């Protein structure tokens, strides 16, 4: 039975509680340095980074957006994007899983009832991870007692293999958009490792299949009708953060490969360096606007934040990711998937990072 009152027990130890933004940045840098060592080997051999994700949880980094009212730190969005970029520079696949996790937590913050927030934020502070997803057309969600009976499958999304909870968009009868909060270990919920493609081979992309499951009303939240909701904007911002991390890693690889020959290609190198710095500045500006929209969620502020987050993502897409217009129903928890489908694995093609950075 899908209900937040029936918590599944995690085998992980309780997570550390990060107390400041300075500690959050320092923790991210230490983890990224550790993740970088075998990132290529993991990608080549598709060794899923379960241990690395557990280290991320235990560090407390996955809980840094929990609001203060629920005993969290609630870092600024500009800092959050930078932290995701730092992690992605070490391992882009882990960065994508983290991107989806934080987007799902923003969905929880903006949609859920108070009791649901209290229950799930407590799990986040203990180290539980989330993945946003969306159920496909043909999913059955029918009224049953104090809730609904669910039969269906989600679209393939990054991070779901590593998640303890799945925040899945669905449509309740007659045509009411909702988000269902499902425990990954719930009987009736099966996560299938069906990712088979180029790039980001270890980002935990998978499909959740639900045979038959009763989802209690307390595990369901109404979804926003605005196409400029802050969870969509945050997803765009963090996707750009992942791409920024990839670009920084490519830059580092390029400079190592060029060595003393850098003066012969100085104009091209300078141009790429400027693009990376401009993207970082755009992320910081978009993050500040998103802070404003979260505090004062009027339509004008949310539109402004959404525009800035979309604009911040554009320079990164120019570094190797093709733009795709985001749909409200599929964007949540799925906005980075096209990059993985369209770009070959960096680990399989050792010079591709240099190619990306060099344009």
Write the layout of secondary structure elements.
Layout: H1 21-36, H2 39-45, H3 50-59, H4 77-90, H5 92-111, H6 114-126, E1 130-134, E2 140-143, E3 147-153, E4 165-172, E5 176-183, E6 189-192, E7 207-216, E8 220-222, H7 230-258, H8 266-295, H9 299-317, H10 328-331, H11 337-342, H12 352-358
Parallel strand pairs: 1-4
Antiparallel strand pairs: 2-3, 3-7, 4-5, 5-8, 6-7
Helix pairs in contact: 1-4, 4-5, 4-7, 4-8, 5-7, 7-8, 7-9, 7-12, 8-9
Ends distance: 51 Å
Taking all Cα atoms into account, the compactness measure Rg is: 20 Å
Number of strands: 8
On the 0 to 100 scale, the average pLDDT is 86
pLDDT < 50 stretches: 1-9, 316-359
Shape: globular
Question: Largest beta sheet, briefly?
Answer: 4 strands, mixed
Strand content range? 5-15%
Going by helix content, strand content and strand pairing, the class is alpha+beta
Helical amount: 40-55%
| Domain count | 3
Per DSSP, the total helix count is 12
Structure description:
The protein is α+β, with helices and mostly antiparallel strands. It folds into three domains: 21-126, Acyl-CoA dehydrogenase/oxidase, N-terminal domain (Butyryl-Coa Dehydrogenase, subunit A, domain 1, Orthogonal Bundle), CATH 1.10.540; 130-222, Butyryl-CoA Dehydrogenase, subunit A, domain 2 (Beta Barrel), CATH 2.40.110; 230-358. Helices cover 49% and strands 14% of the residues. The strands form two sheets. The protein has a four-stranded mixed beta sheet with strand order 1-4-5-8. Strands 2-3-7-6 form a four-stranded antiparallel beta sheet, with no helix packed on it. Helix 5 (92-111) runs antiparallel to helix 7 (230-258).
């Amino acid at each position: 039975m899908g209900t937040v009152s029936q918590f599944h027990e995690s085998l992980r130890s309780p997570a550390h509680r990060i107390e400041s933004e300075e500690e959050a940045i320092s923790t991210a840098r230490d983890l990224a340095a550790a993740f970088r060592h075998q990132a290529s080997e993991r990608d080549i051999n598709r060794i899923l980074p379960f241990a690395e994700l557990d280290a991320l949880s235990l560090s407390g980094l996955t809980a840094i957006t929990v609001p203060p009212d629920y005993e969290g730190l609630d870092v600024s969005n500009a800092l959050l994007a930078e932290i995701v970029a730092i992690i992605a520079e070490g391992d882009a696949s882990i960065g994508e899983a983290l991107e989806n996790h934080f987007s799902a937590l923003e969905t929880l913050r903006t949609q859920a009832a108070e009791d649901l927030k209290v229950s799930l934020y407590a799990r986040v502070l203990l180290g539980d991870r989330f993945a946003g997803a969306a159920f496909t057309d043909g999913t059955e969600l029918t009224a049953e007692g104090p809730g609904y009976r669910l039969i269906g499958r989600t679209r393939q999304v990054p991070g779901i293999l590593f998640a303890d909870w799945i925040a899945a968009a669905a449509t309740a009868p007659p045509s009411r958009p909702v988000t269902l909060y499902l425990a990954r270990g719930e009987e009736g919920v099966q996560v299938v490792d069906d990712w088979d493609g180029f790039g980001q081979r270890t980002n935990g992309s998978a499909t959740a299949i639900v045979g038959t499951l009763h989802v209690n009303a307390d595990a369901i939240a109404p979804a926003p009708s605005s196409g400029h909701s802050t969870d969509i904007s945050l997803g765009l911002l963090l996707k750009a953060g992942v791409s920024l991390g990839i670009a920084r890693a490519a830059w580092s690889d390029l400079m190592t490969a060029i060595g003393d020959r850098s003066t012969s290609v100085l104009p091209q190198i300078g141009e790429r360096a400027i693009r990376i710095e401009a993207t970082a500045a755009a992320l910081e500006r978009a993050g500040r606007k998103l802070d404003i929209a979260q505090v004062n969620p009027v339509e004008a502020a949310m539109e402004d934040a959404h525009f800035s987050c979309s604009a911040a993502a554009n320079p990164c897409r120019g570094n190797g990711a093709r733009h795709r217009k985001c749909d409200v129903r599929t964007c949540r928890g799925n906005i980075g998937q096209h990059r993985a489908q369209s770009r070959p694995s960096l680990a399989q093609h050792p010079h591709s990072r240099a190619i990306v950075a060099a344009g």
